[in-house]
Amino acid sequence: MTSRNSRQNGTRAIGEQVDPLGPLRSPRDPDCDVFLTGTVFLDIIFTGLDSAPVRGTESWARGMGSSPGGVANMATALARLGLRTSLAAAFGDDHYGEYCWDALEQGEGIDLAMSRRIPGWHSPVTVSMAYEGERTMVSHGHEAPPGAASDPIPDCPPRARAAVASLAPGRREEWVAAAARRGARVFADVGWDESGRWDLDALDLDHCEAFLPNAAEAVRYTGAECPRAAARILAERVPIAVVTMGAQGSYAVDGRTGESAEVPAIEVEALDPTGAGDVYVAGFVTGTLAGWPLADRLAFAGLTAALSVQEFGGSLSAPGWPEVAHWWHALRARPGGVPEGLRHYGFLEDLVPGDAAAAAEEARRAVRRRAVPTIGFRHSA
């Protein structure tokens, strides 16, 4: 557990970047905090739809944005929270790929040394339509040519504090085991099992420190009657099981100590839920590497996800520390102070700048690259 003083030493003066791992860093540490690999998509997001598209009709969206997607959601969220992030991915040599590479490397400071540009390969694309608090997605893409992106990426992950993996039934990736052998703490999520088998034994959980499925996935994989019971079953397989429960918040069990924690969700008006799960995982990874208590990690992850759904897109909606600071000080400034149901966020007091006016000004000045309708304008506005 991180003490109050060490947390204060991890903050910074106004205008400087928060390093959540500042008190823990030493010259012998790896250069990389978090390594991850996967597919980068160009996301095109439509919002403001009154309902799902109807066959044979044309629907007009009130909002639209474009941004890097797929594994870029997680990488950007990690980088914006101050973690040194390394991404291994294939990028097409089309304009979409060029835009995604620039947005991640130049815009977010993500290390792409292990990524590759693939001549003649076009970028995968996802169209996401957000309505009624949910989303529907249509994707298109082709596998990168053999050897072009997968060699040497999976076999040679850099030494890192942590690695984030997306699990799939029946698939075991050597890079995950290699990362764990080199000292990385592995955090894993999972997608929907299209086969319908939901075989927990088919998931490669052997090297995972934390597993973070959503409620539907957790219940189906365990056969439990509720998400909390599912988390307790999963904690027999991995050291930490975290189950996200949407509007009900999240619940976690530390299988090593028996500790459990539950934190309710923050009520916000969601514009676009794309990438919220990735942002949640990034927040939990940040708190875990920083050594925070389990409940604080859940709260912080939930906050970052809540802030993200109020912006367009997956990757470029991810909040940074200025947005976190602004939210906390705005909450404190409410008549009557922090509401009873949100007082568990008091741990932020030691993490964000103490001056409310300065924090608000920094949030205003911290111009984040956000999703825009086009992938770039020919001339600056």
**Using only CA atoms, what is the Rg?**
20 Å
In percent, how helical is the residue content? 25-40%
Main sheet summary? 8 strands, mixed
Percent strand equals 15-25%
Give the total of beta strands.
14
First-residue to last-residue Cα separation: 47 Å
Order of helices and strands: HEEEHEEHEEEEHEEHHEEEHHHH
> Which descriptor suits the 3D outline?
globular
Q: What low-confidence regions span 5 or more consecutive residues with pLDDT below 50?
A: 1-16
Global mean pLDDT: 87
Q: Which strands sit side by side, in order, in the main sheet?
A: 4-1-9-10-11-12-13-14
Number of helices: 10
Tell me the structural class: alpha/beta
Protein topology:
Elements: H1 4-10, E1 32-37, E2 40-47, E3 63-70, H2 71-80, E4 85-88, E5 90-92, H3 95-107, E6 116-118, E7 125-131, E8 134-140, E9 160-167, H4 174-181, E10 185-190, E11 208-211, H5 215-222, H6 227-234, E12 240-244, E13 250-254, E14 260-263, H7 276-290, H8 294-308, H9 321-332, H10 356-365
Parallel strand pairs: 1-4, 1-9, 2-7, 5-6, 9-10, 10-11, 11-12
Antiparallel strand pairs: 2-3, 7-8, 12-13, 13-14
Helix pairs in contact: 2-7, 5-6, 7-8, 9-10
Describe the protein's architecture and organization.
The protein has helices at 4-10, 71-80, 95-107, 174-181, 215-222, 227-234, 276-290, 294-308, 321-332, 356-365, and strands at 32-37, 40-47, 63-70, 85-88, 90-92, 116-118, 125-131, 134-140, 160-167, 185-190, 208-211, 240-244, 250-254, 260-263. With 381 residues, it is α/β, with parallel strands linked by helices. It has an eight-stranded mixed β-sheet, with helices on both faces. A four-stranded mixed β-sheet has the order 3-2-7-8. It is globular.
